[in-house]
Design a protein that fits this description.
142 residues; five-stranded mixed sheet; three-stranded mixed sheet; 23% strand
C-alpha cells in the first residue's frame, strides 16, 4: 500500500480568484504561474469559453511544504457551518498572555483584508480566535 504524499484543500465558492488572493495574504501563499503558453492568468482566462472563465483559481505555498489550495466556483451559496476548517497556526508554542497577544495581532492584520472576527476564546492559558473569511468560511487563529 502506497502512502499519500500530497493533499490539496478545495474550497467551493462564488469568486475563486478573489478568495484565493485573500488566502494568499493570510498564509503567505503565492499564485502559481499561468499554464504553459500564457503570459498571464488574464490571457489564459480570455482563451476559455465564456462559461468556463473564472471557474477556478489556486494558490500554493512558495516553500512547497504546505498543501495547494484550490478554489472552484459553485452556483449555490454557503448554507451551513463548515464541517472542516483551517487552523492558521500563528501562536504555536506560546501560552497565556503572550499567545493571546500573538493571536490578536494576527486578527488585527486580517480584519482589514475582509476577515471577520467572530470571538476570542481565552481561558488564561490557551487561546483561539474563530474567524470568517471573505465568503463566510470559518477558520481559526490558533
Amino acid at each position: 500500500m502506497s502512502s499519500i504524499r500530497q493533499v490539496q484543500i478545495t474550497f467551493d465558492c462564488a469568486e475563486p480568484e478573489r478568495l484565493a488572493r485573500f488566502w494568499c495574504e493570510v498564509l503567505g501563499y503565492v499564485v502559481p504561474p499561468p499554464p504553459e503558453g500564457f503570459a498571464t492568468w488574464d490571457e489564459y482566462q480570455h482563451s476559455l469559453p465564456p462559461e468556463q472563465r473564472d471557474a477556478w483559481f489556486a494558490c500554493v505555498d512558495p516553500s512547497g511544504a504546505g498543501p495547494r489550495l484550490f478554489f472552484q466556483r459553485v452556483p449555490e451559496g454557503k448554507a451551513a457551518k463548515n464541517r472542516v476548517h483551517l487552523d492558521v497556526r500563528v501562536a504555536t508554542g506560546l501560552v497565556g498572555e503572550e499567545r493571546l497577544a500573538a493571536l490578536e495581532a494576527e486578527c488585527a492584520r486580517l480584519v482589514p483584508l475582509g476577515a471577520v472576527h467572530v470571538r476570542t476564546l481565552y481561558d488564561g492559558t490557551d487561546a483561539c480566535i474563530p474567524m470568517l473569511d471573505i465568503e463566510g468560511n470559518e477558520f481559526c487563529l490558533d
